Amino acid sequence: MIDTLRLTAEEALGLLERREVSARELWDAYRAAIDERDGELHCFLSLVDEPAGEGVPIALKDVIGTKGIETTAGSKILKGYVPLYDSTVARRCKEAGLVTLGKTNTDEFAMGSSTENSAFGPSRNPWDPTRVPGGSGGGSAAAVAGGLAPWALGSDTGGSIKQPAALCGIVGLRPTYGTVSRYGIVAFASSLDQVGPTTKTVRDCALLYRTIAGRDPSDSTTADVPEVELPEREDLRGVRIGVPKQMVEAEGIESGVKDAFERTIQLARELGAEVGECELPLSVEYGLPCYYLVAPAEASSNLARYDGVRYGLRAPEDAYHAMVMRTRDEGFGDEPKRRIMLGTYALSAGYFEAYYGQAQKVRTVIRREHAEAFERFDVLASPTSPTVAFELGAKTQDPLAMYANDLLTIPSCMAGLPGLNVPCGLSEGLPVGLQLIGPQFAENALFAAGHALERALGFDRVPERLR
Ligand code: GLN
To answer: Would you tell me which CATH number, out of the four given (1.10.10.410, 3.90.1300.10, 3.30.460.80, 2.40.170.20), belongs to the domain 9-279+366-466?
Structure first.
């Protein structure tokens, strides 16, 4: 019997290599888990009927373009859009022998922190189905945590890999900007979007990152990436960990989250790390407002392409302008509309310098603050999310409360830096995530620190109600 709740992708690869299970048996085990639990969790927007290969299965967030498989980005406006080509990450997964199980749920165009903005209904948290799995990559995170996929890919603009991983008690990496190709990904905010792994363990995360990272001629923002090392070490001797004062003292961090974080920092000391305090005052104060100018500005431009001509939905109107207007009115949900309006405003003549221009300057300040912190520390540590998973509906009427979820994940995204979520304990029976931030291209340092902590923490990642 394959226990999909416990089996790691690395173990699955081993079983296949040693021919202890067949690829078909693996596929069937995950399909059985999907049949059993996806009705409740709603992780998948579409499923693939037959495995297109002989390797380990994988789930892909529905912003990842897949040849021949509908790709909707959680939006009605892309309903029925079947890409004619694979995104580079989908192609690399195929070339590595991975077989796509299906496409996972996401907030519409990855805009959100709970998957409740999906046009196709929310996903639910495997730890407690009355609660959200986080977002926007809640479908991928819930699929991995709920044993519906051994691992999955997500995308992260301001926290959409890290925060759902935190809320679902699994590992998630937002890679350094420019390490993973964006070719064939549904664009949200192009200066921030990065694809990355959502996995059960840090080693799985390193394996999947190794598969997808690297320069891609089809995405000129990609760079050569240092060779990925699978983490082995179980201590943290010689590792300097900085704890940004403003991140642990920020308003709205639940006391249970703080406690789990502090216990983890104590453990890091016991493993030999040198822990010190550092400062990110402007990043924490201005990170969110800066992001909510830059990201909507880029989104308003990226989403201009959905005009009813090239992709998905087309409203039946004879005149061109009437068709475009109705398609966009009926095709976009409230959140993309809100962002398009915010973004167009920030970019409009007369306001551009005051909003978008100013935000770009603040972004440079955020980058500098992080660079200064990394003069003294190898990695920075904070909670990933200020809260544990919240109830469905709790924040849907209050966009600002929803945005506040990203307080701790956004600053490093604005600085283009990699961030890893490692589950670090429970609060009220729900997972708490530790966020480790590194300098550019320091994924190996994050994997090493994350792996040592993961080993020492011994967090049981199988949701209590499914054990
Ligand atoms: N929650 C943030 C937003 O709504 C980040 C989403 C993301 O990273 N895609 O924009």
So the answer is: 3.90.1300.10
